[in-house]
Write a structure and sequence with these properties.
228 residues; alpha/beta; Rossmann fold; 9 helices; 31% helix; binds zinc ion; transferase
């Protein structure tokens, strides 16, 4: 059987590519599963789109405020072990917008889709804290609409996040995919920047089908990280 612990010990640079599954044990629902964020919504991707924010800012705000903020969520063992490993020799590139990798103490984190807890006014770009946003989505001073600094459907990814993610993948001799089915581009395209000899491992309860060579660890990620 593949020995993850040994692979991590031998590696010079470990890059983690993480998704919603990593935060589920912290009580944050994922997007697409039965009880996920999108459950019961006809067109959930529209709710989180640039068009919805522009055309129906009150619907956007209502959905985000009611469904996405979990300020009391705590990092779990996956976040903690990843933080320790990446602080020593690696990077975490995450699709998650919950900030839990940083909360676990990880210093080398690329938040590919931004962070829900960073808020800014679309009109004047002043920043706010999330508590202010949860009170109101209007900037009283100029009437601007506040929004979280996350990448919405229809929006481009920040260039800095792309370049940091691409270099983290290019530097890695071990890539660990965790908490994601790794089907959604452009995140899933990041492996194209890996060196040819870089080992790729995926940890997931369901077997993944991916268009490249990788080691599948079919298990509960919490148990896998607990054992490291
Ligand atoms: Zn403003």
């Amino acid at each position: 059987m593949f020995d993850l612990k040994q692979a991590i010990e031998k590696a010079n640079h470990v890059t983690f590519l993480t998704g919603a599954g990593v935060s589920v044990p912290s009580g944050i629902p994922d997007y697409r599963s039965k009880n996920g964020l999108y459950a019961g919504h006809q067109n959930p991707e529209y709710l989180l789109s640039q068009d919805n924010l522009r055309d129906h800012p009150e619907d956007f705000y209502k959905f985000v405020k009611a469904s996405m903020y979990y300020p009391d969520a705590k990092p779990n063992v996956i976040h903690e072990k990843m933080a320790a490993i990446s602080n020593e020799k690696g990077t975490i590139v995450t699709q998650n917008v919950d900030g839990l990798h940083a909360k676990a103490g990880a210093k080398h984190v690329v938040e590919f889709h931004g962070n829900l807890y960073r808020i800014y006014c679309q009109k004047c770009h002043q920043t706010f804290n999330y508590q202010q946003y949860l009170q109101s989505d209007r900037h009283e001073k100029d009437g601007g609409i506040l929004r979280p600094d996350i990448v919405l459907y229809g929006e481009a990814l920040p260039e800095q996040a792309i370049s940091q993610a691409v270099s983290a993948v290019g530097e890695a001799d071990l890539i660990i995919i965790c908490g994601t089915s790794f089907q959604v581009a452009p995140f899933s395209m990041l492996v194209n920047y890996a060196q040819p000899n870089t080992q790729i491992v995926a940890i997931n309860e369901q077997r993944l089908r991916l268009p490249f060579k990788f080691e599948m660890i079919q298990a509960d990620a919490q148990q896998v990280f607990q054992a490291l």
